[in-house]
Amino acid sequence: MKKVQFQSPWLPYLLLLPQLGIVTVFFLWPAAQAIQSSFYLEDPFGFGSTYVGLDNFKDMITSTDYGRVARFTAVFTFFVTVLSLGIALLLAVKADKVLRGASAYKTLLMWVYAVAPPVAGLIGVLLFDQHVGPIVDLFAMFGWKMQIGVNYFDTSFAMIVTAVWKQIPVNFIFFLSGLQGISKSVQEAASIDCRSGFRRFWTVTFPLLAPTGFFLLIINITYAFFDTFGIVDVIVKNEPGNNPVTLVYKVYLDGFRGNDLGGSSAQSVILMAMVFILTIIQFRLIERRVHYT
Amino acid sequence: MATITLDKVRKVYGGSVEAVKGVSIDIADGEFIVLVGPSGCGKSTLLRMMAGLEEITTGEIKIGDRVVNNVDPADRDIAMVFQNYALYPHMSVYNNLAYGLKNRGMAKDEIDRRVKEAARILEIGDYLERKPRALSGGQRQRVAMGRAIVREPAAFLFDEPLSNLDAKLRVQMRVEIKRLQHSLGTTSVYVTHDQLEAMTLADRLVVLSGGNIEQIGAPIEVYDKPASTFVASFIGSPAMNLLKVKADGNGLALATGTGLKGANVKGRDACTIGIRPEHLEVVSGPGEGEGIHLEASVNVLEPVGAESYLYSSFADGGDEILVRVSSHARHEPGEKLYLRAAPENIHYFDADTGRRID
Ligand SMILES: Nc1ncnc2c1ncn2[C@@H]1O[C@H](COP(=O)(O)OP(=O)(O)OP(=O)(O)O)[C@@H](O)[C@H]1O
Ligand SMILES: [Mg+2]
Fold this sequence. Notes:
The complex is a heterodimer. Chain A is built from twelve helices and two strands. By secondary structure, chain A is mainly α. Chain A has one domain: MetI-like fold. In chain A, helix 4 (99-114) packs across helix 7 (152-181), helix 5 packs parallel to helix 10 (229-236) and helix 7 (152-181) runs antiparallel to helix 10 (229-236). Chain A starts with 10 loop residues before the first helix and ends with a helix. Chain B is built from eight helices and 21 strands. The radius of gyration of chain B is 25 Å and the shape is elongated. The mean pLDDT of chain B is 90. At the A-B interface, helix 8 and helix 9 of A face strand 6 of B. The structure holds adenosine-5'-triphosphate (ATP) and magnesium ion.
C-alpha cells in the first residue's frame, strides 16, 4: 500500500474527528452514563437520584424476573446459534456439491440477509400470524393450535424460528466460501483415502472448516444476544406480559417502560462486559485463523 | 500389482467438450507408463478416470481383472500423487500417511510399521510430527509420495508431481521416483507435459494430442521413429526440423524453391521431411557424401554449455532450421553453412495427414 505523509501533524486528527465525535456521542458517552447510573437509584418522576453503590446489581441478580429472562436468553441463544449454524452448514455442504447452482443459491439466500431484522421479524410474524400465518395453519393441520403472544412456548418457538431464519444466509455464505476455500485436490485425495463420505466430512472437511465455524459461533452468539431486538419487539408487540424476552429487550423494558433507569443501566453494564469478552475472543480467533491454509 | 486395461475410453464434459476420444492402452504389470502431451490434451482427464475422480463417459477401464467403471476411488486399490501435493493441512505428516490406512481398518502396529518404513525410504523421519505448512516444497513432495507408498497399492497414479519444484530438485526427485518404482515394482501411470521427464521415466510413452493417442512406444522407439509430425516436434529437445518439400527433377525442393540434392520423395509429389538438429552435419563444401544437402546461413548462435545451437535460414528465407554443434566448433552469425543429413536420419511424413511414411 502507498503511504501518504500529511503536511500538518494535526490534519489526520482533524479528519478522524467526525468519526470520533460519532463514537463519543453515540457510544462512549451513553456507555459512561450507563455505568454511572448503574450506581444510582433514579427517582421515577425525575426528581434527582441517590447513590446506592452496588445495590442495583444485587437487586438484578437476586430478582427472579432477571433470572427467568437470563435463562430464556441462554436457551434462545443456544437454539438460534446451533440451529442457524447447523442448517446453514448443511445447506452449504449441499450447495458446494452442485457448484454450478451455488451462485443462484447464494443470491437467493442473500436476499433474506438483505431484509433488515425488523422486516425479517415482521415477515416472521406474518408467517406465524394467528389468523393468516401459513406456518400456524400448517401446524394446525397437525393438531398444534399455536397462540403466539399468549402461549409462552409458542411465542418462544416463533421467535427462535424467525431469528434462525434471518441468520442462516450469513452463516451459509461464510460456510460456503469456507468450503470452496478447501482445495479440491485435498478433497479428492481424501476420497481415495476414505470411502465413507460421512467419515470424510468429519475427518477432513469439518476440521478445515473449523476456523470459519469458530468465527461464526462468536458472530452468532452476538447476533442472538443483541441483534434480535427487532424480532423480539415485533413478536411481543410491546406487550411483554408473560412473554419470553431477551436480556437486551429487558434493558429497554425496565428502563423505558418501567422507568427503572438504575436497574436497567446495571443490566446494560453486564451486557457491555459480555460484548467486550466476546470481542476479545473473536480477535484472538481471527489471529489464529490466519495460520490456517 | 496389477495390469490396467483401457478399452475405447471416452470422456465428454458437459455434453459437448470431448476431452478424451476413445483411448485404448494395455498396461502391463509393473510397467511405468508416462502420458505426455501439451496442455489440454486430456492426459489429466485420462488419469483421473483411472483414479475414479472423473466419470467414464463410454468405454471400459479394468484394473487387474476387475472392471472399475463404477467402483469408488477408495476401492480401486490405487494411490494418487497430485501436482499440488494435496496434503491434509490439519494433520501431522504421520497422520497424513496413516489416514488412508486407518480408514481401511488396518491394525495400529502395522500402520506404524508402514509409516516408519516409508519415512525411512523417503528420508522424512524427522518431520513426522510436523504439519505440512512447516515443510518445504520438496519435503511436501516426499510426504505425498509417502502417502502413496504406505498404501502398497496395485498402481500409482501421478499427475505432474514434480512441476511445482525447482529445476534441480525436479531432476533429483525424478531419479528417485524411478528408483523407487523399480524397487517396488508397482504399476505406475505418470502424467507430464515435460518431454524430458517423460523420456527419462517411461518404460513406455503414450503421446497424446487433442484427446487422441498419437503414438505408444518405448522412449527411444518414439524418438527414433516418431509416428507423426506432432510427435516429431514434441519429443526431443531441441525439436526436430520439419521442412515441407516437393518432388523435383533431381531430388527434392523446399517450398520456397531452394533445391535439395540426393533424396527421394518415396513416390509422392510432396511431403514433409524431418531432420533432428543433431543429425545435421556441418561439412566443408556442397554435395559431399550421400544424403540431403542444404545451404543455410547462421542467424543466431546459442551456446548452452556442452553444445551450441545454430539458428539458420536458407538463402531465400522461409523456414528456419536448427543445427546442433559441439560447443567448441567456431561459428559466427552470418556465416554460410553447408549441411548434410545422412539418409537413415531423414524422416518422411505425409504432407496432409502428418503421418509417418516408411
Ligand atoms: N471439468 C471440466 N469441464 C469441462 N471441460 C473440462 C473439465 N476438465 C477439463 N476440461 C477440458 O478437457 C480438456 C482436457 O483437460 P485436461 O485437464 O485433461 O488437460 P491436461 O492434458 O491435463 O492439461 P494440463 O497439462 O494443462 O494439465 C481441456 O480442453 C479442458 O478444458
Ligand atoms: Mg493436467
